[in-house]
Design a protein that fits this description.
Layout: H1 2-24, E1 35-40, E2 43-44, E3 48-51, E4 54-56, H2 58-70, E5 73-78, H3 84-89, E6 95-101, H4 104-107, E7 111-112, E8 120-126, E9 141-145, H5 149-157, E10 162-166, H6 169-178, E11 183-187, H7 188-197, E12 203-210, E13 216-220, H8 225-240, H9 243-251
Parallel strand pairs: 1-5, 1-6, 9-10, 9-11
Antiparallel strand pairs: 2-3, 3-4, 6-13, 7-13, 8-11, 8-12
Helix pairs in contact: 2-8
Length: 275
Amino acid sequence: MRSTLSKFVAVVTAGAATLALAACGSGDAGASGQKLRVGTLTDAPPSIYLENGTFTGYDNELLRDIAKREGFEVEFVGTEFAGLLAAVATNKFDIGSSTISTTEARKKTVAFSNGYSTGFTTILTRKGASLKDVGAFAGKRLGVVQASVQDDFASGKVPGANVVRFPDYNAGFAQLKAGSLDGWVVPKDIGQKYIDQNPDVPLEFGYTVETKDTPSAFAVRKDNKELLKKLNDGLAKAVADGTVARLHAQFFKTEPLPKELEKGGPGLPVQNAGV
């Protein structure tokens, strides 16, 4: 009887704790002093990555700055990109921070802050492969991070390619290095960082396309309008006083800063679907 009663108490206590945790992560996420859970990646420098046990990169340092301005705290949690937006939509994470391109399809799942960067999608290849246009990849093995914009690009704009999906960037880079992939589709800044850090790996940029029409932004639940407002207000202040320009220069050594994000610039407004 005592054992049965103990199990009952344990179940009730665990259930109460679960309800309390769910309540903390919903509704008023972004209230002053609250700690918010942020889903991010560990292996995509210079934008989002783990260094000496600390989550950093352009996206995450900018989010820290916004949180400080707006009076809330952030707790970063590493995750895979494929499930990130669903995790934000279902309240596992309050914010998604992962150079998330603001496509129309993704706006059906989450709401986005205004944009904080633009960039280029590129196909990395082995040096001397002579794969400089999308048509050259017909019948070739083309790697992507699952559910990324690069996945959409490879699936829809590279005819005849054999698209191979990976859970993260490290896995794809390892396969490209080993010669198991003919091309690896990544944001150009991430590709450049890998080349800089691995000069012994003979890689080069193949086909490259600009992605300015879908700027990167932080993701939040559609009903969390308070947090969305805080993110946009903090981002606007960071653009106005030059913080965005400073962080961009710190993490992106060769990529130009969009004029809209220069000190005092108008920013990159994102129009959310149904928000």
